[in-house]
Amino acid sequence: MSSNKPQTTDIVNPQKARTGLNRILHAGGYSMQGLRAGWGETAFRQEAILAMGLVPLAFWLGQNWVETALLAGTILLVMIVELLNTCVESAIDRIGPEWHDLSKRAKDMGSAAVLLSLLLCAGVWMAALWQRLS
What we know:
- By secondary structure, the chain is mostly helical.
- Helices cover about 80% and strands about 0% of the residues.
- The protein has four helices and no strands.
- It starts with 19 loop residues before the first helix and ends with a helix.
- The model has no long low-confidence stretch (mean pLDDT about 90).
């Protein structure tokens, strides 16, 4: 029985052919390029600078490993969501500069995701500070 799928040896994306350590090294390089691109965004840069102070503070403020992980994790979550929001905005901007309801909706939802991650982070930090200082 033969498959209806055409058999081709051409690789559309040569990056997909990498395996093992070679793949991991290249993926790490792409991740670093992504962080450098994120650094070009004002909001991400502000959050990263704030994280440089708050992540070490999380180790002082946290009473145990769970609290420390929550404090540091919420900061990293904000940065992750900010990068994903930038991804959405970049992809939409690539399509074109004209206004479209769906483009606005996607950008607004990305912004809302950042807001929710910031509120979560602030809530966790306020609760930890309250517990530590009272």
